[in-house]
Structures are given as C-alpha cells and as structure tokens.
C-alpha cells in the first residue's frame, strides 16, 4: 500500500499549448528528490479533460520513463463513458503504470448502482490495481461510503481518493475498516486531519509546489504525530487555500511559473490566473518558504 504524499502532477505546456515534455521530466525529478511517495499522471491537475487520448497516453508514458521505477506512477484514466475508461486504463497498463485512478463519471450523474457497475466493469476488464476517485464538486456525482464498501470487494479495486473535504465523510469511510484498502484525501486543506483520523495519505496539488514539506507533513500525520504534522502544515496552509482561489490547476500552474519551473500556459476553457489573485498566491509562496524574498 502506498502511504504519505502523492503528487497530482501538473502537465506543463508551452505558450502554444503543446505539452512540454522537458519540463515534465524536470518536475518528475524534483518531486522524487523531495520524497514523494508516488506520482499521479494526468489526473484533474494534469488537465486530463483537455488532452487528446494520444497526448494523455504519451504523458503517462513519459512520466513512467522519467520516474524509472523509483516511485509508483498512478495513471488518471477516468471517463464518463465506461468504454472510454476501459480504453484509457488498458493503455495505461500497457505503458507500464503501477495503478490507475478513475474519477466518478461526470456530467451524466449516475445513481449509486450505476457507479458500482461502471467501476466493477472497468476493474474486470483491465487487470491493474485501481483507485476510485470521488470529487463531487467537479462531477456533480457523490459516491457514498456504502458504494465504496461494495466496490472494495472487487479484487483489483484497492483504494479511494476522497475529495469531498468533509471530515464526517472521512470518519464514515475509516469506520468501514476495509481490509487492505487505501484511503487518500483529495483535499489538501483537510489532508492532515484526514490522516490523523486514519487515512493513509493524500493525492496533493500543494505537493507540486512544496513537495518536500508535504512529504514530511504526511509522514508525521500517518505516523500519528499530530504535533509535528501541525507545525509543518502551518507553514503551507496558505498554499492549500491560495492554490484553489480559481479552479485547479489554474493557480498551481501560475505558482510553478513564479518559481521558474514551468510555463503558466493552460488550455481553454481554463485561462491563466486572474491578476487580482497574483499577490495572494505570491504571499502564500513566501509564507511556505519558496518564491521571491522567501
């Protein structure tokens, strides 16, 4: 089981909108050197919704090549079309991904039985460890703990990224006591509290910017050292807020550009960060010990 800080890696792009594979390799190196436990490639933060299938698969493959077996690579392969999710998951397996992350089908709002059948069908079609991803704020679809409990019985469904950001939901999931089933926070602001409640780690946006601090904070929280985790989290809590002043990954791409790590380019319909938020993000970077005048 993977524990601790897992980075939800951005997909860096050039000014013309093309994927910047050189910058991608540099971000992979930086994150691994900082102690990340794993990398999620082409999740929400990686702009999965605007990459073509060919680009999607290529970014996963390049990430796997750059990681070179040093940390697991989890491929984002979710879709609101079950056949498409199977296709992407199969491609990720062929590329060498260690696991797949599958978001709840967005827009079409399936009922709980539809969610159960969707995920079970993908899992039975592709023999690779699969992590469920619940993010109602993006999908207009909330997967309930009772459905997670059913899906945990499927042998290669091995975990859940829960991004509701609600500690009552965290406690409900921990109370299920699912054996050999990983629970990951998908909400940086409540990640520390979630791990202290019993979650195994976080799939993090903030870890793009301060990977070393996130790795240390998560290691302490998973070990139950609430005092150390709180001290580290206090320095980066401003980033947890600032990186969501506009929809992810708009702020995190802007922050990485401020640090000179990638271009701020992003694909429509998303646009670069509104200047009204620039100083707020800069202030959070300084407070976290990175950026100009840190």
Give the secondary structure arrangement, pairings included.
Elements: E1 4-8, H1 21-33, E2 38-41, H2 53-67, E3 73-76, H3 82-95, E4 99-103, H4 112-125, E5 130-134, H5 136-139, H6 145-151, E6 157-162, H7 167-175, E7 182-185, H8 188-197, E8 201-204, H9 211-222, H10 226-242, H11 250-258, H12 278-287
Parallel strand pairs: 1-2, 1-8, 2-3, 3-4, 4-5, 5-6, 6-7, 7-8
Helix pairs in contact: 1-2, 2-3, 3-4, 4-6, 7-8, 8-9, 8-10, 9-10, 10-12, 11-12
Task: Please explain how this structure is put together.
Pathway: Amino-acid biosynthesis; L-lysine biosynthesis via DAP pathway; (S)-tetrahydrodipicolinate from L-aspartate: step 3/4. Its main location: cytoplasm. Homotetramer; dimer of dimers. The protein has 294 residues and is of the alpha/beta class. The protein has a single domain (4-225), classed as Aldolase class I (TIM Barrel, Alpha-Beta Barrel). It is 46% helix and 13% strand. The chain contains twelve helices and eight strands. It has an eight-stranded parallel beta barrel with strand order 1-2-3-4-5-6-7-8, surrounded by seven helices. The longest helix is centred in the last third of the chain and has 17 residues, at 226-242. The termini are far apart.
């Amino acid at each position: 089981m993977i524990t601790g800080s897992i980075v939800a890696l951005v997909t860096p792009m050039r000014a013309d909108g093309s994927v910047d594979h050189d910058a991608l390799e540099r971000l992979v190196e930086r994150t691994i050197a900082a102690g990340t436990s794993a990398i999620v490639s082409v999740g929400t933060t990686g702009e999965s919704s605007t990459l073509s299938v060919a680009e999607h698969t290529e970014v996963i493959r390049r990430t796997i090549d750059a990681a070179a077996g040093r940390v697991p690579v989890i491929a984002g392969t979710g879709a609101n079309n079950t056949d498409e999710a199977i296709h992407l998951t199969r491609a990720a397996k062929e590329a060498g991904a260690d696991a797949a992350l599958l978001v709840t089908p967005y827009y079409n709002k399936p009922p709980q039985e539809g969610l159960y059948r969707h995920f079970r069908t993908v899992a039975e079609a592709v023999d690779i460890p699969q992590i469920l991803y619940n993010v109602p704020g993006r999908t207009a679809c909330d997967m309930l703990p009772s459905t997670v409990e059913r899906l945990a019985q499927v042998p290669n469904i091995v975990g859940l990224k829960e991004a509701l950001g609600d500690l009552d939901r965290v406690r409900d999931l921990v109370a299920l006591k699912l054996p050999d089933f990983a629970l990951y926070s998908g909400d940086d602001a409540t990640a520390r509290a979630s791990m202290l409640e019993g979650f195994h780690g976080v799939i993090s946006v903030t870890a793009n910017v301060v990977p070393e601090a996130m790795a240390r904070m998560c290691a302490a929280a998973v070990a139950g050292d609430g005092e150390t985790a709180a001290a580290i989290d206090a320095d980066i809590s401003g980033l947890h807020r600032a990186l969501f002043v506009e929809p992810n990954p708009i702020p995190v791409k802007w922050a990485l550009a401020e640090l000179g790590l990638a271009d701020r380019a992003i694909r429509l319909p998303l646009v670069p960060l509104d200047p009204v938020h620039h100083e707020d993000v800069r202030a959070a970077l300084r407070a976290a010990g990175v950026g100009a005048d840190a």
